[in-house]
C-alpha cells in the first residue's frame, strides 16, 4: 500500500510540473517583443507613470489629504478609476466614496448609501 501511495504522489507531482509551462506567459517565453503583444496599460501602471512624471501625487500623500475630511469614518482602501482615485470609507454602516484626482482635488463625494 505504501508503494502505491508513493507512485500516486509521484504521478501527481510530475503532471503538475508538466502543466506549469502552460500557465507561463507565452509572449515572454517565446522571446517575442513586448510591443508585439502588449496589453493595454493598467490603471496601476498609469498611476505609477503619472507619479513618476510629477503629474500626480503618490497614493499615501493623497490619502493624507482626504482622511481629515472624513470625520472619523473607517478607511477601507483605494481603487483606481481611470485617472482618478476612489477612496472607500464606512461610517455608521454606510459606504462613502470619495473621488480624487492626481493633484488631490476632491471631484465627488457620495452621500453614504
Structure in words:
This protein is an alpha+beta fold and 113 residues long. It has a domain at 36-113: Nuclear Transport Factor 2, Chain: A. It has 4 helices and 4 strands; from the N terminus they run ααααββββ. It has a 4-stranded antiparallel beta sheet with strand order 1-2-3-4. Strand 1 (74-81) and strand 2 (84-91) form a beta hairpin. The radius of gyration is 23 Å and the shape is globular.
Task: Give the % helix.
Answer: 25-40%
CATH topology description of the domain at 36-113: Nuclear Transport Factor 2, Chain: A
Helical element count? 4
Quick one: how many beta strands? 4
Mean pLDDT: 75
- Are there runs of 5+ residues with pLDDT below 50, and where? 17-23, 25-30
Distance separating the two termini: 61 Å
Shape: globular
What is the H-and-E element order?
Answer: HHHHEEEE
**How is the main sheet built?**
4 strands, antiparallel
Q: From the coordinates shown, what is the CATH architecture of the domain at 36-113?
A: Roll
Give me the side-by-side strand order of the main sheet: 1-2-3-4
The first-level CATH class of the domain at 36-113 is given as Alpha Beta
The amount of beta strand, in percent, is 15-25%
User: What class would the helix/strand composition place it in?
Assistant: alpha+beta
- Rg, alpha carbons: 23 Å
Amino acid at each position: 500500500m505504501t508503494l502505491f501511495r508513493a507512485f500516486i504522489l509521484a504521478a501527481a507531482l510530475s503532471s503538475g510540473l508538466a502543466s506549469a509551462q502552460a500557465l507561463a506567459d507565452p509572449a515572454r517565453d517565446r522571446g517575442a517583443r513586448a510591443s508585439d503583444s502588449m496589453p493595454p496599460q493598467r490603471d496601476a501602471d498609469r498611476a505609477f507613470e503619472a507619479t513618476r512624471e510629477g503629474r500626480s501625487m503618490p497614493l499615501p500623500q493623497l490619502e493624507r489629504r482626504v482622511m481629515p475630511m472624513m470625520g472619523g469614518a473607517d478607511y477601507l482602501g483605494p481603487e483606481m478609476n481611470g485617472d482618478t482615485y476612489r477612496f472607500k470609507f464606512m461610517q455608521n454602516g454606510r459606504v462613502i466614496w470619495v473621488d480624487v484626482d492626481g493633484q488631490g482635488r476632491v471631484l465627488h463625494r457620495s452621500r453614504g448609501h
